[in-house]
From TrEMBL:
Binding positions (ATP): 51, 162-163, 176
Gene Ontology molecular functions: ATP binding; protein serine/threonine kinase activity
Cross-link (Glycyl lysine isopeptide (Lys-Gly) (interchain with G-Cter in SUMO2)): 160
Protein kinase domain segment(s): 22-289
Name by which UniProt lists this protein: Putative Serine/threonine protein kinase
Top-level taxon: Eukaryota
Lineage start: Eukaryota, Metamonada, Preaxostyla, Oxymonadida, Streblomastigidae
Protein's organism: Streblomastix strix
Catalytic machinery residues: 158
Keyword terms: ATP-binding, Kinase, Nucleotide-binding, Serine/threonine-protein kinase, Transferase
Record carries keyword Transferase: yes
Length: 289
């Protein structure tokens, strides 16, 4: 924890909280390695998101410390180069360890309009189409958000609707850095690869264990392009209300069939009422490396 204390020493982070300082309002979701709740700080009435993680074994402690440290590094770097107070990353406010010492709590800003999954589902339930202008605006924000990581040599590694949060002004923020990786100097890839299967890029899926045919995992290289691919899948879902490689009524599609499609086939076409420029952009984002 020494490095974390050095990083937060000049920032107004709170590390003296206790669990009893908060009132839990709702479960927001499960992130990598933890559960996130919407809570309110009793003293200030400030709404926050708190990620609860196991903190018992050395591995669990290392996992928590790395995620928090990476978030601090990202936010510090972005605030140094942006003229605005707003950055496209969910900002940590502080952390504390539970009284029993077996759980750690990462306290973050609360994004009141939920995540991109909620936004996609709401549009589907309303039967509403996204206008081209709104689609380009969202793509621009997402690319700006992920570019803020990439210029600092960081791959997010788990871009998906549940990890894209939306503020009260419907600006997007990246969340959940449990699988994010800082690239080594001079390297353009990492061999650490996690993520959510339906948002993994073809080059990653190509090396996964498919029907017992395990590939050499050391040869799978995850690059920044994997984050861009995942954004393309998300925007396709928003516009077409389905995954680009999963048809209607194919909820039970096998992993083998899904992976085969990702590797060998072209994505479905977007509905015809979208502009050619928008369709071409999404197609480029979904290109196989």
């Amino acid at each position: 924890m020494d490095l974390i204390w050095l990083l937060i020493s000049s920032i107004n982070f709170i590390t003296s909280w206790k669990k009893s300082d908060f009132e839990r309002l709702a479960r927001l979701g499960r992130g990598s390695f933890g559960v996130v709740h919407h809570e309110i700080e009793k003293k200030t009435k400030r709404h926050v998101a708190i990620k609860e993680m196991q903190y018992e074994t050395d591995q669990e402690k290392d996992m928590f410390n790395k995620e928090f440290q990476l978030m601090l590094n990202i936010c510090n770097a972005l605030h140094k180069v942006t003229q605005s107070q707003f950055i496209h990353v969910v900002e940590p406010i502080g952390f504390f360890i539970g009284e029993d010492g077996d759980k750690a709590y990462l306290v973050m800003e609360f994004c009141s309009n939920g995540d991109m999954r909620k936004y996609i589902d709401d549009m589907r339930q309303m039967g509403a189409d996204i206008k081209d202008e709104r689609a380009f605006e969202l793509i621009g924000q997402l690319i700006q958000a992920i570019n803020q990581l990439h210029v600092n040599s960081i791959i997010h590694g788990d871009v998906k609707p549940e990890n894209i949060l939306m503020t009260d002004g419907f600006k997007v923020k990246l969340a959940d850095f449990g699988l994010a990786r800082q690239l080594q100097v001079g390297r353009e890839y990492t061999t650490n690869h996690g993520g959510t299967t339906i948002y993994l890029s073809p080059e990653i899926l190509h090396g996964k264990d498919i029907q017992g045919q395990k590939q050499d995992q050391g040869k799978i290289r995850q690059t920044k392009a994997a984050d861009i691919y995942a954004i393309g899948v998300m925007i396709f879902e928003l516009l077409a209300q389905k995954h680009p490689f999963i048809g209607d009524n194919e909820e039970d599609l096998s992993l083998h069939e899904f992976t085969t499609r990702i590797i060998n086939e072209e994505p479905a076409e977007l509905p015809s009422h979208y502009s050619e420029n928008l369709k071409a952009l999404i197609k480029r984002m979904l290109e196989k490396a």
